[in-house]
Amino acid sequence: MIRNIIGLSIAVLLVSCGGDDGPPPAPKGAALVFPEENSECTTGTDISETSTQVTFRWIASDNTESYTLSVVNLDTNVPQNISTTSTSASLNITKGTPYAWSVTSRNSASDQVASSATWLFYNAGSQTTYTPFPAQLVNPLSGSTVQKDIANEVLLEWSGADVDNDIESFEVLFSDTDPPTTSVGITNASTMEIPVGVESGTVYYWRVITTDLEGNTSDSGVFDFKVL
Length: 228
Description:
Layout: H1 2-17, E1 31-34, E2 39-41, E3 45-46, E4 51-59, E5 66-73, E6 78-84, E7 88-94, E8 97-106, E9 114-115, E10 119-123, E11 136-139, E12 144-146, E13 153-159, E14 167-175, E15 183-188, E16 193-197, E17 203-212, E18 217-219, E19 223-227
Parallel strand pairs: 2-10, 12-19
Antiparallel strand pairs: 1-4, 3-4, 4-7, 5-6, 5-8, 8-9, 8-10, 11-13, 13-16, 14-15, 14-17, 17-18, 17-19
Organism: Allomuricauda ruestringensis (strain DSM 13258 / CIP 107369 / LMG 19739 / B1) (Muricauda ruestringensis)
Protein name: Fibronectin type-III domain-containing protein
């Protein structure tokens, strides 16, 4: 009887020692290196009169087997994606054009992915002055549902950048129709938020037009959100 009890105890101990080790570690987000954030990329290899080949580089991230590089033409919003196990990849992109790029880290042992920061840059062209990067709409997130404050307002927030560092103003267009055409305010280069009046149960649309000292403008594109 005692022998049976001892045998059973050992079996239970072995099972507990060989139990679940938990989920595999999730990949970490990569740190971007080049092209640098809010910069003009001048090191591409000429492919034609209109395009250059640019090599994107980042730092290896933990628990990662492969990476997906995503490069988005901000004039057309068309992305180019390429997968690699390396920490660099080359793509042919259009000269004189603003781009956003980011890297997604993946591991086949995990169902989770990790995204890097998103950096903006201009691929060098023949121009000597550059249009501002389209404003990046930060809050509210597009498609989100938000709570208005006690003053029946929601705070719109964005970020802006320019290679020439000569942004003059941001104009916010906001309405309950798409696309929004009602201007609710113009802010200076250092002010990237504005409160707007809202009503519950309504979907709103907003966009930001950035203007620099040369008169160049860029359009953020339209975001929408619903108010509880």
